[in-house]
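Form 7-S
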Amino acid sequence: MEPMTRSDAAFAAHGRGWFNQTERLNRVESVALLALLAVMVTFDVIGFVTSGTNHLDHLVSVVSTLTLALYIWSPLVATSLLGVTVALSLTTAYASASITAGSLAALLVLRLASSPLIIAYFGGLLLATAAVTSGISPSVIAPPEMAIYLLVAAVAGSIGVALRTAYARGRRLEYQLAEREEHERQAIVAERRWIAGELHDSIAHQLTIISLHTQLLDDDEMRDASQEAIRTAARKALSDLRFIIKLAEDAPAGTEVSAGDLKAAIDEAREEFRGAGHSVVLEGDLHDEGIPRGAEIVLARVVRESATNIIKYAGPGDVRFVLDVQPEAITMTISSPLATGSTPRVASSSGTGLNRMAGRVLGVSGEFSAGPVGNEWQVRTYLPLGSLPNSHETRVAGIGA
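Output:
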C-alpha cells in the first residue's frame, strides 16, 4: 500500500469518501436553489388563491417546497422536517405534492448529506412509495405516476452525486496545490540557505585574509607579502563566487545543491575501499589553498560516485587519486584496476553514475572522461578556475550508455 501524502491526509480529515459528513452549498448553488424555490412557491400561492376548495393540496406543496430551502443551512434539519411533512401528508389525500418535493430533494441529499442521513432519506422514500401504492395511505398514486416520481428522484440524485464528486475533486486539487506551493517554498528556503552557507564557507575566509593583510600594508617589511596575499585571496574569492553562481544556475529547479568537502569524500572512500580490499594512493595536496570551494563540491561528488563504481566493479589492486592544482585549472584523475575476466568493464554498468558525474562537471564548463586506459579504469575531471568557457567548448569522452 502506498503511503498517504499530506494532501491525502488533509482530504481525509476534511471528509473521507463522499458521505461521511454533512457539507454546505456554495453561494452559487444557494442562489440557484432559492430562485427555483421562489418560482415553485409562486405557482403554489397562485394556485392556492385561485383554487376554489382544494386549499390543502397547495398548502402541503408550499410547506414541502419551503422545507427544501433549509438545506442551505442544515441538511439534517431539512431532511428531518421533510420526512415529517411527507409523513403528515400521507394521512391526507394530498401526499403527491410532498412526494414531489421529496423526489427533488434527492439532489440536495446526495450533494450534502452524511451517509446515515442518505440511508434514512431513501428508507423514508421507499416507505412513502409503499404507503401510497398499497392503499395504506388515503392518498392513492397509480404505479405509473409513482414510477415517474422515482425516476425524478434517480435523475436528481445522479446530479447530486456528480456535483459532490466534482467538488470533492476540486478540494483535492486545492490541497495538492497547497502542498506543492509549500514544497516550492521549502525548496527556495533550502536553496537560499545553501547559497548563504557556500558564500560564507568560500568567501568569508578569503575576506578575513584580505582584512588582516590590509592592516599590514603600512609595514614596509610585510607590504609585498601582504599585497600578494591580498591578490591571491581576492582571485580565489572571485573564482569561488563564479563557481557557486554557476552551480546554483545549473541546479534543477526546486532542488538543493549539496555541498561537498574533497578531503572528507576521499577519507570516506578510503574507509570503504579498505573494507573491499583496496588500498589508496594519493598524489597531490588536498589542503592546497588554490582549490576553490566550488571545485571541491564538484570533485567531492565525482569521488563519491566513482567510489560506488569502484567498489562494485574494480579488480584487486590499488586505487590511485592524482590531484593536480594549477593557477588556471584543477585536474583530478581516479584510477582503479580493471576487473579480471573477458567481460568488458562498461558492459556491467548502466552508465547512470557516469552520466551524473559528467553532468556535474559539464555544469561548470569542465571536461570529463571515463574509460579503460591500459589495465586501469580511469576517471578524469578537468575544472577551469579562471573565466568559465562556454558550454560548447566542453566535451565528454568515453561515457557508456
